[in-house]
Amino acid sequence: MQATLTKPKSGNKDAFVSKFMQDLTAKNPGEKEFHQAVQEVVESLVPVLERHPEFKKAKILDRIVEPERAILFRVPWMDDKGEIHIQKGYRVEFNSAIGPYKGGLRFHPSVNIGILKFLGFEQVFKNSLTTLPMGGGKGGCDFDPKGKSDAEVMRFCQSFMSELFRHIGPNTDVPAGDIGVGGREIGFLFGQYKKLTNRFDSVLTGKGLNWGGSLIRPEATGYGCVYFAAEALATRGESFKGKKVAVSGSGNVAQYAVEKVNQLGGKAVTMSDSNGYIVDEDGINPEKLAYVMELKNVKRGRIKEYVSKFPKAQYHDGTGVWNVKVDVALPCATQNELNGKDAETLIKNGCICVAEGANMPSTPEAVEVFVHKKILYGPGKAANAGGVATSGLEMSQNAIRMNWSREEVDRHLHNIMKSIHKTCVDTAKEYGQPDNYVMGANIGGFLKVATSMMDQGLV
Fold this sequence. Notes:
Elements: H1 11-27, H2 32-51, H3 53-57, H4 60-64, E1 69-78, E2 84-95, E3 101-107, H5 113-129, E4 136-141, H6 150-164, E5 173-176, H7 183-197, H8 220-234, E6 244-247, H9 252-263, E7 267-272, E8 276-279, H10 286-298, H11 306-309, E9 314-317, E10 328-330, H12 340-348, E11 353-355, H13 364-373, E12 376-378, H14 380-383, H15 386-399, H16 406-430, H17 437-456
Parallel strand pairs: 3-4, 3-5, 6-7, 6-10, 10-11, 11-12
Antiparallel strand pairs: 1-2, 2-4, 7-8, 8-9
């Protein structure tokens, strides 16, 4: 099993977590990411269950780790050469206690039921923290859009939606984009949904601006991560001004995290992809970031090409991005990209704040280091909630048939991230763990869902 995040105060608590996890892993074998996500939450919730015995009696914890529904379906499609391919499609509708299921679709070869259960479970608490009425879900397929033509992606998306459409709706389940699902894919998915249902519903978020999308939605996860980090820094009288920042990834989240760091006076010096990372000690300024955006979003190139355009920068193969000496680290790539050794290195090099732009990018060992050393650490379910929060704002705009200005959406996003930060701080303090954002996020997200489940009975 994965390493624990916090040492239990008593043998009873240790025994409770151990027994719970043994039962969970026996029922869900081989789903290591899901086990990791659940263990982190369960360890935080022991004091809540002691304070609220009614939750134990109602088996809230046992119910909340079990998806309300998990759908598996076949997705056949034909490539440009006429060859037929068969993929596995999924939608995990995890919890609808506070609103319709809400969470992204991921198209990537690594997609399986365990990863989607981990993401859907995290989404339940993340959505709860946003203050918006959204439940948690996640879906996707083991399809890889890389290297596919627009026509191939369209045919795949139409086949995928031909099954998914019967399980979703504006008041039931509202998917969004995730890894491998951007504006192109959302457009093809929505077009097929509309054709099959004969309805123009607000059933997908991340839509094009000219047909129901929201301003700031592409920027939201990256912006939100930086807003959360800024709130955390402010608790110690610090800001981004003059800070060196390491950012991992070079996709949507990383790009807009770098943009917001620049706007707040910081200097982002790294970006990465699955092959390696670049270090630019002069800072990835707006001109350089524009090049990265074109390289990644239009040309679908590799980050290595950055040094050809800006030769003062350095490129390194592999995953050593966390070896760079910085004040703030923003992991924005993928799950478990930052391990315990990386965490020790960051702190040794003077890093005072880590905010997660990706879902669960830090291993349990890394989280244990951050919490033990008492640095400012924003877990993904809090720090990267800006994306789904703005998806919720898109749903609100669709519902009232209005579009808000860029400034208005950004203001709402900023306020939501401030609220999430306050919930984490206040809840951690209330449960005797001041500055422990992991505990604050887990308990703060859980309480709203748990009390709603209690109100609605045994369903």
